[in-house]
Amino acid sequence: MSVIDVRKAITRAHREEWARVVAALTRHFGDLDIAEEATAEAFATAVERWPADGVPANPGAWLTITANRKAIDRIRRENKRGAKQKEAQLLYDDAPPEPLGAIHDERLRLIFTCCHPALAMETRVALTLRMVAGPTVPEIARAFLVQESAMGQRITRAKAKIKAARIPYRVPPAEDLPDRVSGVLAVLYLVFNEGYLATGPGTDPVRHDLTAEAIRLTRLIRALLPADGEAAGLLALMLFIEARRTARVSGSGELVALVEQDRGAWDTALIAEGHRLVRERLAAGVAPGRYQILAAINAVHTSARDVRDTDWSQVVALYDQLVRLDPSPIVALNRAIAVAELDGPEVALAAVDRLQDKLAGYHAYHATRAYLLRRLGYSQKSRAAYDKAIDLAGNTAEIAYLTRRRDQLG
Amino acid sequence: MQYLVSVIADTTDFATPDEEAAIDVFNDRLQAEGHWVFAVGLGAPSTATVIDNRGPEPLFTDGPYVESKEFLIGFWIIEAPDLDVALKLAAEGSKACNRKVEVRPFL
């Protein structure tokens, strides 16, 4: 087996087994910290040994056994074995998995613990990325330099709180499940959005590692909870957005608006999968939640081979439905953008201007105004709005796009 | 596992009769379901005295150790198997006494 094959095998094992091994060890040892460290050590050992010894027949089993040994070594080293195990039994529920149909996946417990409502939203995102997605193989090989970072400290504090306050390691009971699942989906959507519109001058405009990870985790939730409409909706939404990834940023690193994208560059397989999910939800005949409506809006966009074929009345109707569920100003802003295509920029601008009090600090509010003012021929006002949008935007590709648009004004 | 459920207030007003009644119902439930350890209301922060006896002589200072807009006005100590149970009980306690509460685990 070549070096490249071994490297691929390690990467695949990491993708498929990381969360499973962390979850199994957490259950066994009752300690997220021990589980994470031992799992990382097991992968570091694989990086060291597999090139010489060959890839084991069952990489998952090899990694679990190795990680178990590492965990026991650590507990022995700390010479607190008895205390730790006693604590573990007290802390963690050893009952068989809750009756939730066919769900029997340790990873689900892990996700629910990382996305616990007693943790701050940013902490949930950081913890989910670390414990469920795992650090990358190169990060593991570099022995966790991230530990020193602000994110590392946030994770350390979170693990301490989980332990001290006894945040349970279990799938919530059925009556709490809908709320808790929506909390998990919110975390995954945040991870995806940070990848899709990455902020900061030093980062790539699109962080594919984050969008891919968010999709992978949402697929996992979807597989674990196949009857959950919002899990299906969120997955479909992410697939539609991911399908447009290469068309969304130009060769010169500039954001390309949806209406200007080369639709031939969209990923048809992802779009087809998204459409299948949307059809499945329509067939279910249950009132859709927020993600399902957003997915349906994206399904309308991706159904149009040419932007001129877009069914804008359908898009506006779906936004009307969304406004009833989520009367936030950001939804109203997005609705206004669709209204501009259906009823013209004047009507849309009036709707956008009503949002000023709530959205004056949001770059997309000013970018939308700039676009509508430009279409109405108010160059000077449009320029001022572009200036504000550029000041507030954090994504490099978006700043490049807005700057060109502004400079094109007569 | 025991948790301290602190009741946070921004006025020293006493509980209204409705709040009192709701707190009684909640306390009865805590006792019936085995969560009850202890509960008490506290005097206003202005009735507090801070004592520091780390030096040669005890030092008494009038007033709370920190002045703040919001302060502790009472607490429950509850018994719960994990934070999920503690949070649910605390949420009911907050509704019953009509004030914010904070949950902290015992060490």
Q: Any overview of this molecule?
A:
- The complex is a heterodimer of chains A (410) and B (107).
- Chain A has 410 residues and is an all-alpha fold.
- Chain A is built from 21 helices and no strands.
- The model of chain A is unreliable at 89-103 (pLDDT under 50).
- Chain B is of the alpha+beta class.
- Chain B has one domain (2-105): 2-Layer Sandwich (Alpha-Beta Plaits), CATH 3.30.70.
- Chain B is 29% helix and 35% strand.
- Chain B starts with a strand and ends with a strand.
- The mean pLDDT of chain B is 95.
- The interface between A and B is small, with 11 and 11 residues.
- The gyration radius over C-alpha positions of chain A equals 24 Å
Largest sheet of chain A: none
The CATH C-level class name of chain B? Alpha Beta
Figure out the total of helices of chain A: 21
Sequence of strands across the biggest β-sheet of chain B = 2-5-1-6
The biggest sheet of chain B, with number of strands, parallel, antiparallel or mixed sense and barrel status, is:
4 strands, antiparallel
CATH topology of chain B: Alpha-Beta Plaits
Percent of residues in helices of chain B: 25-40%
Secondary structural class of chain B: alpha+beta
Distance between the termini of chain B: 9 Å
CATH superfamily of chain B: Dimeric alpha+beta barrel
Largest interface: A-B, 11 and 11 residues
Strand percentage of chain B lies at 25-35%
Task: Give helix % range of chain A.
Answer: over 70%
Q: Count all strands of chain A and give the number.
A: 0
Listing every helix as H and every strand as E from the N terminus to the C terminus, the arrangement of chain A reads HHHHHHHHHHHHHHHHHHHHH
Throw out a few tags for this protein.
heterodimer, A: 410 residues, mainly alpha, Serine Threonine Protein Phosphatase 5, Tetratricopeptide repeat, 0% strand, elongated, B: 107 residues, alpha+beta, Alpha-Beta Plaits, four-stranded antiparallel β-sheet, two-stranded antiparallel ribbon, RNA_pol_sigma_r2 (chain A)
